[in-house]
Amino acid sequence: MPERTPGNLPAAALILVFSLLSACSSTPPQPASTSGWGFNGKVGLWAYGEQESANVEWQDCDSSYLVRLSGPLGVGSALVYGNDSGVSLHRGSDDTLYADSPEALLASMGWYLPVSHLRYWLKGLPSPDSPYQREPQSVDALTSLSQSGWRIAYTYQSGQITRISMQDDNIRLKWIIRNWHESAVCTAP
Fold first, then answer.
1. 174: closest CA among 152, 158, 157?
2. Neighbours of 138 (CB within 10 A)
3. Predicted TM-score (pTM) above 0.85
4. Nearest Cα to 70, choosing from 19, 121, 6?
5. Neighbours of 17 (CB within 10 A)
6. Is domain 6-181 in CATH 2.50.20.10, yes or no?
């Protein structure tokens, strides 16, 4: 992976990282199914000396997903849509970017993140695609996970995930989940 420095980290890459990679005591139940779920919250990113944050709305529908990101007061919004055919990034009046996979889209910008794992990690599950280590080893709620070079830690409130911290050697993500929902609408833009 090419080295990134604070001065050459493109804003579009930061937005894409946010979208492809989420607390209060009234957090609704975390959905148990692997389809038709979503959440609203906030994500923070610390990477190569840069720090960014965004509000996030994640919709996950079986074989597709839709992620909306917005900065403070709706400034800097972006929409990412993905399915089995590929992924697209829509950002205001900028040209739409397309790729076969979210990883390919990031790689074209000089980044590597295991974004396909996020659909599992955000729900407190290891991805079935690669080896992992988890704590605890039993079937109880997952408190930490190591997979694909990432360390993931979960915070629960009333039995539901409310915070997720993810870190590799260069990047740290923090998700704050305000509410989970069991239904999702993933209509292509």
1. 152
2. 8
3. no
4. 19
5. 21
6. yes
